[in-house]
Every structure is written in structure tokens, then in C-alpha cells.
Amino acid sequence: MKTTSSIPFITLQAQRTEHATQLSEVAEACKACSTALSKTLNSLRNQCVELDKSTAAESKKAGLVEQEAALKKDLKQTRSLKSGQALRLKGHARIVPMPSRSFVKRLLGIGQAKREAQAVALRERHGLSDHAVTRVLLEKTLSGIQAKKGAIRDGIFQSHADKLRATIVTAAKLATLESRDLDSLHAYAKSAVDRLQLQSTFVDSFECERDNLRAMQKTASDQWLRPLQERQQTLDVQLRALAQQEKRNERSGLLASARVTDVGATHQLQQKLKELQDRCEFNAVYHTNAGCNAIQGLVEGRRVTVSPSAIIDEIQRMHGDDTFGHGAAKGKAPLKAGAAQLTGSVVNQINDTCHALALAEFRDGTRDNVTTYRQAQLSESRVADLRAMAGTNGLLRPTRFLSTSDNKEEILAYPPDRDERLHCVRFTIVGFSAMKTGSPWQVSGEGQVRLYSTHSCFRVESVRKEAEGIWQVKLREQPVNADHRPASLLRL
User: Fold this and answer.
1) Among 430, 276, 436, 453, which residue's Cα sits nearest to residue 356?
2) Confidence at residue 1, expressed as pLDDT on a 0 to 100 scale
3) How far apart are CA 290 and CA 295, in angstroms?
4) Which of 6, 85, 330, 415 has the fewest Cβ atoms nearer than 10 Å?
5) b (16+ CB within 10 A) / e for 265-276
6) How would residue 268 be classed by pLDDT, with cut points 50, 70 and 90?
7) Cα–Cα distance, 379 to 419 (Å, whole number)
8) Higher-confidence residue: 95 or 2?
9) Which candidate, 274, 300, 318, 338, places its Cα nearest to that of 446?
């Protein structure tokens, strides 16, 4: 798209540039806060790790860790026993009810002394008093140990609370992009410090707090960035619309200066061209030698018949006899029916509509110049004509569809058969009106082919001969009406 330089566009573009700078600065500030928050959160996590280590070390030093583990192990064995039932330690490992399972032993008091010794062993195992050990007592003892561990944890935590609170204040300040006042930051830090004591470990609590701070930062960033991003999107839309309108005005002026009139409605022409091409399977037929030769003959006004069977046979020769087998069989009938409908009238309608649509899209700014390539052999007199037209206002018009390719290397890879009486000419064509073609049965490796209609006109920009004797010709399309007949015309 050509850069427009109107006052409204320049003004709007300046606003967009200024806004983009502001958005970039805010985005950088948010990114810097995010990076700083990550470092602060790492520091907070390290503090929580140290608190957990200190708590574990103090609890172990007091013997609470081993006591807790032993109580949990023994309680696990008593889950199926009654809560108030007296217990004893049997065989240094098993926790069983105090009474013997044997009715006879209970009746005669056999082994009573041994069972009482086992009950004493269980009490000593957990440092209990002379009371009978029950599941309730074990649970109460476990709670007491856990309370002692909690007290140790709370004491260590309180000794580091000020440092934790200061770190959280810094993190909250960064998470809110420094938008909160100091009082609210301290209030948040106080509640955060309280939350750090809720989980079984400080690291677990930290992970919850980290997620909370990250969510705060995202909310704050969105509040800063979203309005700016939405404004930038609005400016971009306005710029594109203004540029498109100015492009359309510029193109309309160009067409008017070229005396191009009666440019049709784009959408209607698009529909018409598609209907015409689909009706006669134009693209698929053109990409066969038989179909291409027949179509070009019809364009030139010759009485030519398009042979559906010849087209089908050629596709099968190129791609195998089973090309239309299995799932592809349904493509054969439409291709034959379409080829049968290719008449001079239909081809001429496609030719006319192709050019009219190109002018409409060029005017609307939705179609721009593209560069394509073509290689041919021309006579000495034809080359002389091209050289004479170079740099002049003379126009070159094709007498048939002018086939070109987007791929220069592909054109060079398949040179025309050399004839010593003819010159090899390589065209570089810059134009807008060529229509794309393609086929499901296209030769493998064949690039995008574009066809210029017989209404296209080209100015010869330059003609030069290379060392190896090949002529390089540059053509540039000029917008003209379909019925334009310049005084100086060379048909290609």
C-alpha cells in the first residue's frame, strides 16, 4: 500500500505513534514490576523454607518428631478398636486390647502379669502416666505433642514476623504496580502473615500467597494496559480505514485520468466470475494441454471444440488410470460436463469479467500490483518492435490469455524449445488484473499461474539483451477500459 500523506492521516498516525509510545512505556513498567516481584517472591520463599527447616530442627531436638511418628504409627493400628478400650504392647510392635482373646485365660487369670507388663511397656513407650493407655489417651497425647510443635513453630515465626511482613509489603507494592498507599499495603501484609500460619508448612502457605500476589499483579496490569491496548486497536482500525479510503480515492483518480469508466460492483463481479468458472470447470480444463489450446483458440475467435474425453484422457495419462477411481470418481462427471459447456461465448464472458473485476478491486484498493514471469520465443521483428516501444506510451495487448507464473525459478527451469530463428525472451510483468488459476490435477511442483485477459494493456519499460543472448523485457500494466484501442498497439 502506498504511504498516504494527507493531513488527517498524518495527524491520526501521530496520535497512534504517541499512544504506542505510552503503551510501550506502561508495558515496560509492568514487565519491570513483574521481574522485581519474581525476585521478591523468591526471597519470601527462601524465608519460608528456612522457617520450616528451623521448626523441624527444633522439634527434632526436643524429641517431638520421633514421639509424633511413634504415636501416629500406634494409632494407625487402633483404628478398629474401641476408643476407651485399654491397650497393651505385644511383641514390641503390635497394639492389642488389654484383655486376652481366650475366654479361659480371662476366667482363670492366666498370663495376667504378662499383659500388665505389656501395658506398662506401652505407657513407657510414649512416656505416659500410670493410667491405662487407650486410643483416646494416645490421641490426646498426639495432640499435645503437635501443640508443642505448633508452639515451637509459632515462636520461630514470631521472631521472623517483622522481616516477613516487610518482604510482603514490597511484594504487594510491586503486585499492585505501586498504586496502593502504604497503609493498605501494611494491612495486606498483616493479613498475609496471618495466612502464612494456616498451612502445615510455611512453604505450602507461601505458594497460596504467591498465587494471590500474581493474580493481583495481573489484575493491576490489565487495569493499566487494557484501556491503552483497546485505544491502540481503535486507532489501528481508524488508520486502516482512512488509508483504505485514501487509497480508493487515489485509485479512482488514477482510473479517471486513464479514462477508465463504468467500473462495476466488486461483489457482483466476483460472484459472476465464480459462477462462470465453476459452470465450465474453467480452471481444471485450462490446466490441461488440450483444454488450454482449446480455450486460447476460443479467445482468438477460432471455431474450436473442447473435447471432454481428451481432457479426461490427458489427466489420466499424467496421473494414472485410477485418477478418477474410488473417492475421486465424483470429480469426473462435473469435469466432463463443464468442459462440454466451454464455448466461445462463455470464454469471452470469463475474459470480460476477469478484467472488469480486476478494475473494480483495483479501484477499491483490495488488489495491488504483483510481479509475475513468462518466457517465450519471439521473432527478430517482434523483438525489434518491443525495443522500439521501450520507454514510449505504446501499449502491448495480448491476443489470448497471457499465462504467467509467480515463480521465476520455475519459468527458467522449463525453457521453450530453442529455435535458431527465434529469440528467447524473458518477461518480468508487473500488473494487477491477472486472475489466479489452479487445478486438483495440476502437475506436481507447478506454482501459482495467473492469467491476464485480452483487455490487459502493458507499457514496455525496458528491453535489454544479456550476455548469453537472452532478452530481458519488463512490462508494467496500465489500467484501461475493455474497449480501449490505443493508437500504437503490439499484440503478443
Assistant:
1) 453
2) 41
3) 9
4) 330
5) ebeebeebbeeb
6) very high
7) 10
8) 95
9) 318
C-alpha cell at 157: 515465626
Query: What backbone phi and psi angles, to 5 degrees, belong to 480?
Result: -145, 160
pLDDT per residue over 45-99, tens digit each?
999 999 999 999 999 999 999 999 999 998 998 888 888 889 988 887 889 888 8
Strands 423-431 and 471-478: parallel
Residue 445 in this model has a pLDDT that exceeds 70: no
Domain range summary for the chain, segments of one domain joined by +: 1-75+135-257, 86-133, 266-491
pTM over 0.70? The answer is: no
CB 270 within 8 A of CB 357: yes
- CA–CA gap between residue 428 and residue 472 (Å, rounded): 8
Q: What is the pLDDT of residue 271?
A: 96
The secondary structure of residue 402, as a DSSP letter, is E
Q: Give me the sign of the Cα torsion angle 393, 399, 403, 408.
A: negative
Distances (CA, A) of 27 to 140, 148, 233: 57, 49, 15
**Would you say 107 and 101 are in contact if contact means Cβ atoms under 8 Å apart?**
no
List, for residues 105-150, the tens digit of each pLDDT value: 767 768 788 888 888 888 888 888 877 889 899 999 999 999 999 9
Alpha carbon separation from 195 to 59, 191, 209 (Å, rounded): 22, 6, 8
Quick one: cell of 293?
489450446
- In the DSSP assignment, the letter for residue 304 is -
CATH architecture classification, 266-491: Alpha-Beta Complex (3.90)
Q: What is the 3-state secondary structure (H, E, C) of 427-464?
A: EEEEECCCEEECCCCCCCCCCCEEEECCCCEEEEEEEE
For the chain, helix, strand, coil in percent to 5 are 60, 15, 30
Over its C-alpha atoms, the chain yields an Rg (Å, rounded) of 45
